[in-house]
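Researcher: Quick sanity check before group meeting.
Model: Go ahead. Protein one:
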Amino acid sequence: MQKTFNLLDIDLDFFVNEIFFDARTDSTNRVTGETYKPWSIVQTIDFLEHHCLLNPKQKVKGAYFVHHHAVFDYLREIVLKHEDDNVQFNIDHIDGHADLGSGDDGYLYICSELIHQPVKQRYYPQPSDRHQRLSPGNFLAYALACRWVKSLNYIIHPDKGNDVLSIHCKDYEDNSGFLQLKAFTKAHLDEMNTIFDGLPYEKAFVVLKKQIPLFLEPQVPFKIIPYDDFLASGSYDYICLTQSPGFTPKASDELIPLIMEYILISV
């Protein structure tokens, strides 16, 4: 039986005035409070209640994490709990970053090894290269590889960060309306990276679009939505909140108990 859940995935760095990009994704060193400042309580409540349509009197099941890749394990728990069903998630991803793998090498493992495996064997990824491991910056690409994602909305920060990885988009276009993982051999990916090395982005993108994969994973509807245009399409079954300390100032921690007012800790 097909079972679909609606997930609101919130990263605390969304509620900071500027996006920070230079941290290691699992860092615990906080960004400077002189430059990076949290939203006010009023701004935060307004977004949660008028855009996400949350109500503190109607808490939604969910969880709190320090690092964002823990959401991958949480989704797996839910999937395994409903092992007799085909479970997928409609995800509204509220974050300063796409978490689809821009800036790391996870796509090499996903494209050349992981999606070549039977689907249920993908639930426990084990790349041999530590630069390709599951991380806060790529966990959604890994969730796509497990076919847990039915649709994904990336609600982008007011600072307009958009770091979608083109290789994971249908036809390599981040405005195509779909994500679609592609299978390659490791040799092909190594060859592609050699070609791209040193090329300007525009020329590298032309080369990328000519690459023919071995096979394609199912298309997943994908939208990039400016924060002020976002309106939840319905109620949520789960909410995840992640602190992401390497991308947030310590002052933003004051918003955590506020956001947790909308969440009932549960699986």
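Researcher: Fine. The other one?
Model: Protein two, sequence then structure:
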Amino acid sequence: MIPLSTGAIASIAAIGAHCNDIMVGAGATLLQIADRNPDVVVHALVLTGAGTAREVEEKNAFAALLPEVDVRLTVAELSEGNLPEEWGSVKRRLAEFRRRCQPDLVLGPHRDDRHQDRRLVAQLIPSEFRAHLVLGYEILKWESDLLKPTLYVEIPTRIAQQKAKLLEQCYPSQSQRGWFDDEAFLGLMRVRGVQCRAQYAEAFAGEKAVVSPFGVHSLN
């Protein structure tokens, strides 16, 4: 395993199709970044759920998980389960969101997610964030669409357990789902930890990145 560093992260753009997507897919990574840099600004966009109990859960989750962080959360009112039919609206929302932030890191769903909403969002993110580090998170669910990861973020045990606990506490509407419990969250993070020689980890798909083996940004 070759460790790569992003350098300091002062601003993050986190994008989800549904409430809880961001926290399930990348909650521990956000926690760890905030733990090391409490001054980080998190710009978050969720495309569905506005005006519902899901929006309340999402706001409570960000407040509980990142209580000291400047979180700028927008929950939009698009129709859950039908985002492909609202392609133009999704595109406009992402463009508006992009104009409000200049992040060092972009977190969103990965392109091979079998849920149509997340897949569409993943396809559109790079068209708005063209010169950014974009990482696609994974969400364990009924479908067999977990990543073949290319990137891992090691997660300390304390933070992994905190993520699992807060997810169960903050999203009671999801408790009936068989995959939404602390065993599933910790189990997946443990598997990803084994794969990168750590106790726990979150895994991501890298959209595109430039690596210099010579320690310089450009050879021009």
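Researcher: One line on it for the slide.
Model: The chain has six helices and seven strands.
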